[in-house]
Each structure stands twice: as structure tokens, then as C-alpha cells.
Amino acid sequence: MIEVRDCDDYEAAKELILEYSQIKGAEGCFVSLDKELADLEGFYQDGALLLGYDEENPVATIAIKRIDDNTAEAKRLYIKPECRGKGYARPMLNAMLDKCRELCFKEVRFTTKPEVMSVGYALYKKMGFEELENNEGTVLMRMVLH
């Protein structure tokens, strides 16, 4: 079982995000990676950075970046390869959605590449995220929060 909590270990979060940035095909998702990693706490200060723990081992991450007062962007959903297939993505996404509601956002958006992240993309659609646009294989999705 995964336990999701607010980031309490920025070094672990940095390692997970760096691991994620190495996925073939995901390079375009990491435009400002150096700036982000230099100050993770500051980068997500008006949002949140969440870590998922398998027992006491950090194995997953998801982040929330404030776009404006009503809208957040979900970023960096990553689960270590050896922990995939255990059903960890849905609790990570649900924790992110709960945190967005707690932070009073009305909508959460994110971009994904279905060709690279087909399993995640299928889960996003199953959970009720809608596709807003597809720009050369990069899909912008959103969910309106109630």
C-alpha cells in the first residue's frame, strides 16, 4: 500500500524527478528542470509537492504548480519502475486532487504524452480528466474540481 504525504524529503523528491527526466520520450516535459531542482520548495510554494511511500521508501511523486487563483497544473507524476503495477498511480492522483481542493483551486490541468505514457493517459481518462487539446502528441487535459 502507498502512503501519500506532503514532501518531507526534498532530496528524495529531487532523485525521483531526475529519474523521471531520464525516461525516453519525456525530455520535452522538463523545460525548466535545473531551475525546478535548484529550489523545489520555492518552485512549488503556492502549490504542493507530494511523495508516495512504500513502507518508508519514497517511490512516487506528484506536484501541483499554481497557474492562477483558480487553476493549478499537476506535474511530475512518477512511480519507480519496480513499483509500477501495484495500483499506486490512482492514490497519487487522488491525493493531488484532494490537495488541489484543499488549496481552493477550481480546476487542475496537466500535459501528457500518450505515446510515451499510455498507461497514465488511460488512467487520466478513466478518472474523468478531459482532453482540451493535442499539440503534436502532447495532450493538455483538465478536471474541474467541485
Question: What does this protein look like?
Answer:
Strands 1-2-3-4-5-7-6 form a seven-stranded mixed beta sheet, with helices on both faces. It is globular, with a radius of gyration of 14 Å. Strand 6 (130-135) and strand 7 (138-144) form a beta hairpin. It is of the alpha+beta class. The chain has one domain: Aminopeptidase, CATH 3.40.630.30. The chain has five helices and seven strands.
- At CATH level 2, the architecture is 3-Layer(aba) Sandwich
Q: How many E strands?
A: 7
First and last CA, distance: 27 Å
Order of helical and strand elements: EHHHEEEHEHEE
Total number of domains: 1
Q: Strand sequence of the main sheet, in spatial order? A: 1-2-3-4-5-7-6
What gross morphology would you assign? globular
| CATH class placement | Alpha Beta
Largest sheet properties = 7 strands, mixed
Our count of helices gives 5
Radius of gyration, Cα only, in angstroms?
A: 14 Å
